[in-house]
Design a protein that fits this description.
The chain is built from 17 helices and no strands. The protein is mainly alpha-helical. The chain has one domain: Hydantoin permease (Orthogonal Bundle).
Length: 405
């Protein structure tokens, strides 16, 4: 039964797990799957990298937990209302999230195009084709699918995402056991750095969690079955375990192989693939490459399709009667912008684009939700204890009471 009409306070484990898995899949985008995010943010922190990665996922899941509960308990209908509730009584601040969201979507699509182009350039250097020609080819393919085949690609994206996660974790585990420099890298880092990089490791954790908060609009919609505070917390504990284990394994594996892939030309652009190829396990690297490309293209298509669906009905396009033509104009503009971003290269997108957006998100998303948002949610539960999620409680009474406030 829908939560808005009253449901039991006890949410099944399967529902909590499915919502947690959505956050896991959302995190496993181009930056994570390529290993570039882990390398740029955590491997460079030395022996503190894996701990920073786990701390980052704790911050991230706690932020999403507060956002989902605030959205569900107040019966909100959009992420604009969510941020209005968070910032109340101060108005108009929510526009900063809009700016962050649009920039990050362009960065995400740009990163997907850049990763796919870099992978194709590494594996299929036909006729000496440059990276930039592959950017154009991938961007064109994404736009074509957006206009004519987005539905089919969207349906396949879940399978592709699962494939990339399974193959990536397999690479992480195999890479840890086969890493030639793992123990030495951690020992040298600990001996030379000690705790001098601790402030940086903490800051990186907040920054990484910040730019990942671009998934909030998706998560509050997927998380509507989580009608109580405890259900939101349970789901995010599951997601924390999935994300923390995967990211920490990635950081540990890449730390061990860093001397190998950083010595290769452009080996640090897609370090997971470079490490996999260095392991000399052809079937694993081949499977990973196929899943990576399909996942990246489907991510680009679904993201651009969402933008197209929102903006194609603007007045500026009202004179165009054909829906495919309207979609072509909108998606073409978005793809052009994303392709321009992708020209900067995956490493620069993640280092600078994601980095600066992360700084903004710390101020407007992470810190507000973990402080003001957590306080408002706790106060709401004290006033409406049915939303706490204890066994046998009912949310229906709380929904009625909230509607009368």
């Amino acid at each position: 039964m829908d939560k808005r009409s009253g449901v039991s306070g006890t949410v099944p484990f399967s529902v909590c797990f499915s919502v947690g898995a959505v956050l896991f899949s959302s995190h496993a985008g181009g930056g994570f799957a390529s290993g570039n995010q882990a390398f740029q943010n955590f491997v460079t922190s030395g022996w503190l990298g894996p701990f920073s990665a786990v701390f980052c996922m704790l911050i991230f899941t706690l932020t999403i937990k507060e956002a989902m509960f605030m959205y569900n308990s107040r019966r909100l209908t959009s992420y604009k209302q969510l941020f209005e509730t968070l910032y109340h009584p101060f108005g108009r601040i929510e526009i900063f999230f809009e700016v962050f969201f649009y920039i990050m979507v362009l960065m995400a699509v740009g990163a997907a195009v850049a990763t796919a182009a870099a992978t194709l350039n590494a594996y299929f250097p036909f006729g000496g084709a440059s990276y930039y020609w592959y950017v154009v080819a991938v961007g064109t393919a994404v736009m074509f699918c957006t206009i004519f085949g987005a539905g089919l690609v969207r349906k396949a994206s879940t399978i592709m995402g699962l494939g990339i996660l399974i193959s990536a974790v397999a690479i992480f585990v195999a890479g840890i056991f086969k890493a030639p420099h793992l123990a030495r890298e951690f020992a040298v880092s600990y001996a030379s750095d000690g705790f001098s990089k601790l402030p940086r490791a903490v800051w990186i954790a907040f920054n990484y969690a910040g730019f990942q908060c671009v998934v909030i609009p998706t998560m509050i919609v997927c998380g509507t079955p989580l009608t109580s505070r405890r259900a939101c917390a349970r789901s995010m504990r599951i997601s924390f375990a999935l994300n923390a284990v995967a990211l920490a394994l990635s950081v540990i594996m890449l730390t061990g192989w860093a001397p190998v892939f950083t010595a290769l030309p452009k080996g640090a652009t897609i370090p997971t693939l470079s490490s996999c190829r260095a392991m000399d396990i052809p079937w694993l690297s081949g499977t990973y490459t196929v899943c990576l490309l399909l996942c990246l293209i489907s991510t680009g298509v679904t993201t651009v399709f969402g933008f197209t669906a929102r903006f194609e009905k603007m007045k500026i396009f009202s004179g165009i009667e054909s829906a495919p033509v309207r979609c072509a104009f909108v998606s073409g503009a978005i793809i052009a912008a994303a392709m321009t971003v992708s020209m900067a290269g995956l490493t620069n997108i993640i280092k600078y684009g994601y980095g600066y957006c992360g700084y903004l998100a710390i101020a407007i998303v992470v810190v507000p939700f973990l402080t003001v948002g957590a306080y408002k949610n706790r106060r709401f539960v004290r006033e409406h204890p049915e939303y706490d999620g204890r066994e046998g409680s009912s949310v229906e009474t709380a929904v009625t009471a909230a509607a009368g406030d």
